[in-house]
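Re: Re: token formats

Sure, here are both.
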Amino acid sequence: MSVMLSVRDLSKTYGSGHEALKSVSLDIEEGEIIALLGPNGAGKTTLISTICGITTPSGGSVTVGGHDIITDYRPARRLIGLVPQEVSLEPFEKVINTVSFSRGLFGKPRDDAHIERTLRQLSLWDKRNAQIKELSGGMKRRVLIAKALSHEPRILFLDEPTAGVDVELRKGMWETVSGLKADGVTIILTTHYIEEAEAIADRVGIISKGQILLVEEKSALMKRMGKKTMRIDLQSPISALPEALGDRGLEIEDDGHSLLYTYDTAATRTGITTLLQALSDAGITLRDIHTNQNSLEDIFVELVKDGA
């Protein structure tokens, strides 16, 4: 795969002195989906705005499809589609006119077949003659995506695309994004919904205080940093751990009715076998055992906390 987006030492400092981006470097390959996670004010929207030419960088460089966003901005911008965080649409305009007009803004010739295909892909064809004000919030989000796709970009930025959208529509949006990936479109997604990244992203980037903490394949990240927690429910509650169990890393929970044991899934030995034997030797009778795998959300929270 070729690199579609290359960011090198990108920085952005506002007049107030606030550093929104601090030497950000990132390569994104053609046809992949990358999710950028970060708390409010982390720099996600500033990064997207800078790449898309809305904000002027203070330093560094960005190329899109080999075109520099400053010195070769027209061809670079033609490759980009942007779905902004805020819904800003003309309420009295028809859906089909809204989408067709966006295509014209990029100097593309009229292509009714492409507009129809895009609207059908986003389940908007039946609403093509409806006014924007008649649409639900989820449908308006779909119109924003259709506008962004109207000029056939090769890289699509989705800035919080499912904010305020119900669960059913959110899953429908995930399916739409997966379909775009199948067509070879590169997708950069910012989101507050961790499950969104888990569901559709190939790689996950975590940004905090204007810096990229890591970019890694989702599955590899969860395997490398994922931990499992084993909850051991006891037949009879205990008030304190026996001395022989003091170095086992156990935590007492639920007023002594349960013990928690955290272990590394990638470790050669988990220590579970010897732990269970030690519990038996200490005269502690088990009632039940449950295990829970760390989620991407747990990993995200831990990384941001460590980077604070």
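Second one below.
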Amino acid sequence: MLSNALLPEIADLAIPKPGGEMAYRCLTCQAFHPITELLYTCPECNGVLLLEDRQFDRLKKTPPEHWQAIFSLRKTLTRPALRGIYTYHEFIGPVIPLEAVVYLGEGHTPIVEASPALQKESGMRFFYKNDGQNPSASFKDRGMASAMSYINHLLREGIIDEVLAVCASTGDTSASAALYASYLYPLVKCAVLLPQGKVTPQQLGQPLGAGAQVFEIPGVFDDCMKVVEALAAQYNVALLNSKNAWRILGQESYSYEIAQDFDWDVANLAVFVPIGNAGNITAVMSGFIKFFETGIIRSLPKIIGVQSHHADPVYRYYLEPDENRRHFEPVTVSPSVAQAAMIGNPVSMPRVIHLAGRYNEMAGKKSVFVVQVTEQQIMDSMLCVNRRGHIACTQGGECHAGMLAALKQGIVTDADVAVLDATAHALKFSGFQEMYYTDSFDADYGVVPKKELVNFPRLVRPGDLEKVPAPGRPLSGKEFTDFVEKTGRDIAKALSLSKKGL
């Protein structure tokens, strides 16, 4: 909560000015590289990069309570550049002038407490963070706002000219990339690669509607990613997958918002995120670490990554308790309803290993976990939570199933408060709900509908009606009166309603 007593002390910091010294750091050879060009891997050893502010320690000079007040104050301002993820400008993109920030309404998605009935059924208190309420209806907009703001900054400075932005996608990344690129058209154009037949019609419609060039190729996401990586290595294109370290920076805002929404007390929180390309869990860990280092939060919450048994390379990696004996192996994925997480060789795996080790060390105990769930559990969870007042996508169902698994394994207890990531809007995945209701899943999914979760519309057409209304052929008079009375009668009977006064 903003204290009026602090207003005079933070007034000069309310509107941030460009600062810091951002650089790419290779996680393999530790070399630093300038940000004057778009890099995705280390030029020296081809290792994975993270963006670091080499002047980060300057942020520690501002008292934690001042940072808290600054962020609270910015949420009351009307300046568009500070209304989204750049509320946390100094922690995300301090070198980017506010004039270059691309804001389309992303960030500050609601955290909604689960209904009492659902919490009782689930066995613990928890909240959903509804990231499907971002502009393109997924969490990807956080990272895309960051990546596109930096590209816009380079364009404005004349460091680069026209840009072709490319990405591989299971659906949400392409929708977000196409949306943000279209905002900067004609200086930025977009092309996306999708695995043929592996993207929902709703997700496919988004990049098409935004004017992107869409290419479908055989295989799965990992195959698309290899093609995009080859394009980025050989041609002048801007890669917008989470291999782009600017994407990770933007997604850190997820952690910052959770901390702020829980009034900076995260001691008993357990944050559940689905793992696909591993960019999201990377960003969540990195964000909490930064706030912890500056004292904005005084402890680190548990972080639990969730994977389907059809795409579980990170889960398998951490099955080995001895970190010195762990060895990462990509897996061949099987069909998954959690399409955004159907990735067998996540590009951010080196980041996960690096940050999870650092996170656990700073927490003083194991605080990063990975659990595995089945496709059946994902679908059942999605349908159950949406029957109790929520709008969870399949990834949101995956997180709920992961919470139940973690509770059963003792990773969390009823003393913890869970925050589940609903990464996209449920309507993007409505086709899977229909497949569940009609029992039309391919055998590869291993999903069998539970009768109590299946729901269908029922046609009401009373047999004793001579005429019914139709488009362009309305009823009137006694015919319409009969239609209303007899249709209402049959509905009341189906609902076992009692008449008033009886």
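The longest helix spans residues 477-494. Residues 21-54 form one domain.
- S.
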